[in-house]
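Dear colleagues,

As part of the handover before I leave the project, I'm documenting each prediction I ran so the next person doesn't have to rerun anything. This entry is a single chain, and its sequence is reproduced below.
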Amino acid sequence: MQNYTRVNIIKYIAPKIGCVPQTLNEWVKRVEGDTRVRDGVTTTDCWSPSISNS
């Protein structure tokens, strides 16, 4: 029986797309935040100006 954990899946996929597992994990977490699967600030919110320059 295979152990399909998130860590194992990321370790398997990362070298196939030319990155290290840590990078792929960060990308996955960012997508989860952007799609509201994970709590936190979205990428759009990070890049939106929150302070006026007037």
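The first helix runs from residue 6 to 13. The two ends are 62 Å apart (CA to CA).

All the best with the project,
I.
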